[in-house]
Amino acid sequence: MIQQLVAGIDIGGTNTVFGLVDFSGNIVFKETVPTEHFPNPKDLVEEVGEHIKRSFLRFDGKYQLAGVGIGAPNGNYFKGTIEFAPNLKWKGVIPLAQLFSELLNCKTILTNDANAAAIGEMTFGGAKGMQNFIFITLGTGLGSGIVVNGKMVYGHDGFAGEIGHVIMFADGRQCGCGRKGCLETYCSATGIKRTYSDLLMSHHRHRRMDRMVDNAKFIYDKAMQGDKDAIEAFNCTGDILGLALANSVAYTSPEAIFLFGGLAQAGDFIFKPTIESFEKNLLTIYKNKIKILPSQLTENNAAILGASSLLWNEIAVK
Amino acid sequence: MIQQLVAGIDIGGTNTVFGLVDFSGNIVFKETVPTEHFPNPKDLVEEVGEHIKRSFLRFDGKYQLAGVGIGAPNGNYFKGTIEFAPNLKWKGVIPLAQLFSELLNCKTILTNDANAAAIGEMTFGGAKGMQNFIFITLGTGLGSGIVVNGKMVYGHDGFAGEIGHVIMFADGRQCGCGRKGCLETYCSATGIKRTYSDLLMSHHRHRRMDRMVDNAKFIYDKAMQGDKDAIEAFNCTGDILGLALANSVAYTSPEAIFLFGGLAQAGDFIFKPTIESFEKNLLTIYKNKIKILPSQLTENNAAILGASSLLWNEIAVK
Q1: Could you tell me the residue range of the domain that residue A255 belongs to?
Q2: Which of A45, B145, B312, B313 could be B135's S-S partner, Cβ–Cβ 3.0 to 4.6 Å?
Q3: How many domains does the structure of chain B reveal?
Q4: Is some CB atom of chain A closer than 8 A to the CB atom of B151?
């Protein structure tokens, strides 16, 4: 019997990662190309498409392509487009789903990367069987995917689930979106770096943030060594994240909230203050019944699994 | 042909209003009993049930009862219960749907009053045909119902949609829920009274809030007379409400947001500052495409229509 595979494609600012995934979430082929090498999105589509076609030739008829799932920044599920993504060099509206669908002659679904990862968690990860959950990616920014009644919330326009841009503090930190005080300016790799820097400046006025603090992993390593400012940076981040998640519960009352991404790998340093603040700030009817859990997807494979699950999820529902 | 009617019952702290509603939203019978006269909820159920039975006798076989819909404070859709409602004298968990279902021998659906009103808006009001919208009641508190993909969001536990208890300001105003800074302490009849009182105290230190300000209508009348403090109270309320609604959009990206209740009847005094703040605080991708609208349900009939629509909506979906 010929087995079906789905192509999962994750478009990132630096790299485009893609692979072929079977129904159980096994990745049978995986490849990376640098997104920046393709100023014209059509060229990227052809390059990726060629790789996928060549794989199937090598499989010698054992597999067939059931469809393509794409996770992309500013991806619009309804239109299959990437729209004005600040982290990509492609400007305007890119009909990426259509381009892949025409080239590979199969069903193609596109959504933003955080939504794709959320569906990945539901299809292959810790949210299997859950009808209501929230998925948070703590990367350079804060992405989110909200699942209600077993379905991704896309909203009226396909752009639902931007919890990273909930304004936490009027006149707070400047956000890349042009507004101030957005959650992701505090709770993300970028956010905790700013917090750590602020703490260093206020506690040790003579010290300036050194150039080594170019990633959040540095702050984790410092915290592991007992550095008080690093531990406090995690506590401040968890305080704000816990409040934001408690507020989020008042919207969709989920069974669980999953944290994914570099910052979520800091274990207790981030989970402990987040859960403390979460429970403290929850309305009584919600207390002690909503789990805050680490994502069960591995950092390396989440993007491909998430993108492929866009298709697997719809096939499974039918 | 025998026509079907649904009983819509709204349990309030003071009164229980109920009626019989046809498929088009016509109320063919309506009655009110004082909730407080029934310390035992079973007695209220019997009283209301008797009224409903007697009506059908009078109809002389022209109608039959298709079901009962109930809107109630702290109503739980999944369990059909009222749970620990602070505004009712009934303590603990009341299985109200079961009591009505047994007495009247028909399907009974119960949810909280704001959810019921939201489904009323979708079935009989301005949200007809909308798949994604948010419904806000500005009464003593701030209630909300969220519709996603054409369905009410109940969440994992049946308690979703408590936007009134989103914490807007850490260490803000004391809320009846025991926490501080909840949206409803600012944006509700109670909230605007506190704001107006604060403004009077700060602008005219010699004046104390007089006892006449026992309802928000008084502030509306003052604003109509050009009273600057009253107008500023509306502006402050709209500022915060607009921000809260802009944040809400980041969750479910609705087509429209409906405002219902006494405060929503203040027209431009509340809508203008709310919409200004809303658009100012929206993420760019959402700007200029989400409508903030007054509810199309009349204040008098909304509760009964909303409660009855719980049944009509499920019947219509099938």
Answers
A1: 130-294
A2: B145
A3: 2
A4: yes
